[in-house]
Each structure stands twice: as C-alpha cells, then as structure tokens.
Design a protein that fits this description.
- Helix content is 76%, strand content 0%.
- The two termini are 17 Å apart.
- The protein is globular.
- The protein has 67 residues and is an all-alpha fold.
- The chain has a domain of 37 residues.
Length: 67
C-alpha cells in the first residue's frame, strides 16, 4: 500500500486523535485493577482475545478508516 503525503498526514492525524482519546481515558481510569486487565490484554494475541475485546479493536479500525 502506497500513500500520498496527504493521505499519510490524514491517517496520522486520525491515529493521534484515537491515541489522545485513549490517553485521556487511561489517565482517568488507571486503577490497579484496570492496569492488571490492560497488561493481560496487551500480552494477549488478537486471535486469543475475547470477542468483546476484538470488537473494541474493530471499532478503532472503523474509526481510523472513516473519512
């Protein structure tokens, strides 16, 4: 896949928006319980995630691809 400079910038801006929203959520919800859950999920391959967690990843993908 080859992106034009404009497409690359648009995708980078979307990724930043997604990251910023996640970080704000994280900074408000970083309890020890959530940290353990997030660490477990970070060490789990996508194929082994529960369906609900896979759907969260799909939602982020749809947001990323939404133009």
């Amino acid at each position: 896949m080859t992106l034009s400079p404009e497409e690359e910038e648009a995708l980078a801006a979307r990724i930043h928006t997604i990251w910023a929203r996640w970080f704000l959520h994280y900074s408000k919800n970083a309890t020890p319980e959530n940290m353990r859950r997030w660490l477990r999920l970070a060490h789990t391959s996508y194929d082994n995630l529960p369906e609900a967690e896979k759907e969260k990843d799909r939602e982020i993908l749809r947001e990323l691809l939404n133009k």
